[in-house]
Amino acid sequence: MTRLYSLVPLTAIQLPPPELVAAASRTGYDAVSLRLSPFRAGEPQHPMFDDSPMLLETEARLRDTGLEVLDIEVMLLTPERDVQDFRRVFETAARLGAHNALTLIDIADRSLAVDKFAQLCELAAPFGIWCALEFAAWLGVGSIQAANAIVSEAGQTNGAMLLDPFHLIRSGGKVSDIAVVDPARIRYAQFCDASGTAPDTTAGISEEARYDRLLPGEGGLPLQEFVAALPAGIPFGLEVPNRRLAESLELDERLRATLAAAKRVAGDQAQK
């Protein structure tokens, strides 16, 4: 089974969606992930709604390159966030042909987290979109067990899990923990490496996640075991932000090196 590789925005966060599509095409990726909703305070909201010039340009570049849209980002659920705010995000996602939405939950109250996730899935369902819940150590839903429980309790047919080896290990998890997740709910995964020594604080882990991940095979994460624990051949989104490499390598060289390293570690070297 041929694995699809997608370029994730955080790997080249300076690029707006049309330029991310172009860069992914130039450097050999099969797909892109597009950030339609900001994650952090101060992060720009790209004008990707209605018939904006940027949206039209993104559509044109997707047509010209033949790239797929693996997923869209970031559906961040908080106690204050009205889930209906994401309707226009899903409208654009469906227009671009995306079928997955990366979802994060920063809510400590479990029942509220379940309710919000269920609402999001219900909003996404008419657009043919799965909500893929990712956990992170510094958020209210910070472990694979907690995320899996929320997806299960929400009981939505389009509720899914997004696994990333960085977040799995940095949250104190193990590859063997993936067995708790129904394989049918793992539609794709993200892929990167990191130092074998974790930062001492969750703030440090958050900083590392944004700026200091490593190319697959250059760190200490159990990546081959991670790949083996996943459904065979599922798509990989390459989320490998690294400020040192960004300073030392030209963008296209860095993106090609990221893709080559991921394919080598995942055992997909023979792919085009």
Quick summary:
The protein is of the alpha/beta class.
Mean pLDDT metric: 96
Strand content: 15-25%
The unreliable regions are none
Determine the CATH superfamily. Divalent-metal-dependent TIM barrel enzymes
Largest sheet: 8 strands, parallel, barrel
**Overall CATH class:** Alpha Beta
The helix fraction, in percent, is 25-40%
CATH topology: TIM Barrel
Please indicate the count of domains: 1
How does the helix and strand content classify structurally?
alpha/beta
> Helix count, per DSSP?
10
List the secondary-structure elements in sequence, H or E. EHEHEHEHEHEHEHHEHH
Please give the alpha-carbon distance between the first and last residues. 13 Å
Strand order, biggest sheet? 1-2-3-4-5-6-7-8
CATH architecture: Alpha-Beta Barrel
